[in-house]
UniProtKB/TrEMBL annotation:
It holds the Pfam family Pyr_redox_2. GO terms for biological process: aerobic electron transport chain. This is NADH dehydrogenase, FAD-containing subunit. Belongs to the NADH dehydrogenase family. It comes from Brevibacillus aydinogluensis. One of its GO terms (molecular function) is NAD(P)H dehydrogenase (quinone) activity. The gene is ndh. It comes from the Bacteria.
Length: 396
C-alpha cells in the first residue's frame, strides 16, 4: 500500500496545531504530510489589533514556519488555495498546481462578515492578516499627516470602529493608547481626535458578563472612546458611515470588526455551510466526506444546549490537537476520539496593562486580566515553538 497523503490547508491555529501534532506522532514513513499556506509564516491573529493600531510591530506577530515545523517531516507549499474538489480528492492552488490527498484538513480561517452592508467591502478596513494590519497602521499615520496639510479636514482625525465585539473593543483599547503618541509626533491637538465605537446590539460585548462589560466601557470611555450602542451601521461610503438612526459620521477610517464568517473557498467548493462554516461531526468531519476534516473558524460545532461555539483561537487550537491525534490513529488503524472542547475562559485586553476576563466563574479586571492574557499568550508560544519562541516573543 502506498503512503497515505495528508493535506493541510492553512497554517493558522487549527492547521498549525494539526501539523505539529502529526509531525510529533507519526514516523517519517507513516504518512506524507503537506501543509499549504499563503505565507511562509504563521501569524498570531489574537495580537493583530496591536500592529493595526501601531502599538506593536507587525513583525512581532509573525512566526516563520521553518522555525516551528520540521521541514524534513512536513512538505511545506507556499501557495494560495483556489478551490477544493472533494469528489476528486484534489486541491487547486492559484498557481495552477493541483495537489491530491487521501485525508484533507481545511483550516483556512475566516473572512469579515459584512451582512451585505453597502460600501463596506470597498471602503472599510478589517483586522485579519499581517498585510491588512500594516495597511491600517500606515493609513492612520497618513491621516494625521494629511490633516496637518488640510487643517479644516477634521474628518481625517475621526476614526470609526464598527462593532463592539472583542475585536472592536481590543482595537479601541490599542488605538486610544496610540493616539497621544501620534498627536505628539504630528503636533495635533488631542481634543480634535475622535474614536467612535459603534455597536448594533443593545450592549457592547453582547452575551458577556454585564459587570465586565461595564468595566470595559468605563476604561475605554476614560481613554476617549465614544460609544454608540444599539445603533447599527447601515452603510459605509468613502466619506464615512451612515447609521440606522439617520446620523452620519464623517471619517476616512472605518475599521469593520462586526463579525466573521468562514473562508468563502469552502462554500465555493460545494460544502454545505452556515455563515461559511461547515457543521462538522464529533470527529470534525465534513458531512458526506469521511476523509475531509475542518478546523478553526471554518468549522461549526455546537454545545449541549444546541448553541454554536464562537469561532476562537482557543477552540481552533484544541481542534487541531485533537485532529492530529485522530489522523495518526486513523493511519494506524486505531479508533478516533470525539472532539470535546474544554473552554478555559475568555481574556481580552483594553490597551496597555488593562483587561477583562472570565476564567471559570471568576471575573478578572484590570492588570490581573492583562497579566493572565500574557500568561495565556506565553503558553501558546511555548506550545508551538518551545521556550525559545516564548522568550523571544512575549512582551511583559
Ligand atoms: P487563522 O488563524 O485565521 O489562520 C488561517 C490561515 O489560513 C492563515 O495562515 C492564512 O494565511 C491561511 N489562508 C487563508 N486563506 C488561504 C488560502 N486561500 N490559501 C492558503 N492559505 C490561506 N480568539 C481567542 O480564542 N482568543 C483571543 O484572545 C482572540 N483574539 C483575537 C483578536 C483579534 C484581533 C482577532 C481578529 C481575532 C481574535 N481571536 C481570538 C479569534 C481567533 O484569532 C480566530 O478564531 C483564530 O485565528 C482561528 O484560527 P484558524 O486556524 O481557523 O484561522
Ligand atoms: P463578534 O461577532 O464577536 O462581534 C461583532 C459585533 O459587531 C457584535 O457585537 C455585533 O452585534 C456587532 N455588529 C454586527 N453588525 C453590526 C452593524 N451593522 N453595526 C454595528 N455593529 C454591528 O466578532 P469579533 O469581535 O470580530 O470576534 C470574532 C470572533 O473572535 C468571536 O468568536 C470572538 O469571541 C473572537 N475574539 C476573541 C477575542 C478574545 O477572546 N480576546 C478577541 C477578538 C475576537
Amino acid at each position: 500500500m502506498s503512503t497515505p497523503k495528508i493535506l493541510i490547508l492553512g497554517a493558522g491555529y487549527g492547521g498549525l496545531l494539526t501539523t505539529l501534532k502529526l509531525q510529533k506522532k507519526l514516523n517519517y514513513n507513516e504518512a506524507e504530510i503537506t501543509l499549504v499556506n499563503k505565507h511562509n509564516y504563521h501569524y498570531i491573529t489574537t495580537w493583530l489589533h496591536e500592529p493595526a493600531a501601531g502599538t506593536a510591530s507587525a513583525d512581532h506577530a509573525r512566526v516563520n514556519l521553518d522555525q516551528i515545523i520540521d521541514m524534513n517531516k512536513v512538505n511545506f507549499v507556499k501557495g494560495t488555495v483556489q478551490s477544493i474538489q472533494p469528489e476528486e480528492q484534489t486541491v487547486t492552488l492559484e498557481s495552477g498546481e493541483v495537489l491530491s490527498y487521501d485525508y484533507l484538513v481545511i483550516g483556512l480561517g475566516s473572512e469579515p462578515e459584512t451582512f451585505g452592508i453597502q460600501g463596506l467591502k470597498e471602503h472599510a478596513f478589517s483586522i485579519r492578516s499581517i498585510n491588512a494590519v500594516r495597511q491600517i497602521r500606515e493609513h492612520i499615520e497618513y491621516m494625521f499627516a494629511k490633516y496637518k496639510n488640510e487643517p479644516e479636514r477634521t474628518d481625517y482625525l475621526t476614526f470609526v470602529v464598527g462593532g463592539a465585539g472583542f475585536t472592536g473593543i481590543e482595537f479601541c483599547g490599542e488605538l486610544a493608547d496610540r493616539v497621544p503618541e501620534l498627536c505628539q509626533e504630528f503636533d495635533v491637538d488631542p481634543e480634535l481626535v475622535k474614536i467612535y465605537c459603534i455597536e448594533a446590539a443593545p450592549t457592547a460585548l453582547p452575551g458577556f458578563d454585564p459587570e465586565l462589560v461595564n468595566y470595559a466601557m468605563d476604561v475605554l470611555s476614560r481613554k476617549g472612546i465614544e460609544f454608540k450602542i444599539g445603533t447599527p451601521i447601515k452603510e459605509c461610503t468613502e466619506n464615512g458611515v451612515l447609521l440606522a438612526n439617520g446620523e452620519e459620521i464623517k471619517s476616512k477610517t472605518v475599521v469593520w470588526a462586526a463579525g466573521v464568517r468562514g473562508n468563502s473557498i469552502v462554500e465555493k467548493s460545494g460544502f454545505e455551510v452556515m455563515r461559511g462554516r461547515v457543521k462538522v461531526d464529533e470527529y470534525l468531519r465534513a458531512p458526506g466526506y469521511e476523509n475531509v476534516f475542518v478546523v478553526g473558524d471554518c468549522a461549526l460545532i455546537f454545545n449541549a444546549e444546541g448553541r454554536p461555539y464562537p469561532p476562537t483561537a482557543q477552540i481552533a487550537v484544541q481542534e487541531g490537537e485533537c485532529l492530529g491525534d485522530n489522523l495518526a490513529a486513523l493511519i494506524r488503524g486505531e479508533v478516533m476520539q470525539p472532539f470535546v472542547p474544554a473552554l478555559q475562559g475568555t481574556l481580552a485586553s483594553l490597551g496597555k496593562g488593562e483587561g477583562i476576563g472570565m476564567v471559570g466563574s471568576k471575573k478578572l479586571f484590570g492588570s490581573t486580566a492583562a497579566l493572565m492574557k500574557k500568561a495565556s499568550d506565553l503558553r501558546y508560544l511555548w506550545k508551538i515553538g518551545g521556550v525559545g519562541l516564548a522568550m523571544k516573543k512575549v512582551r511583559l
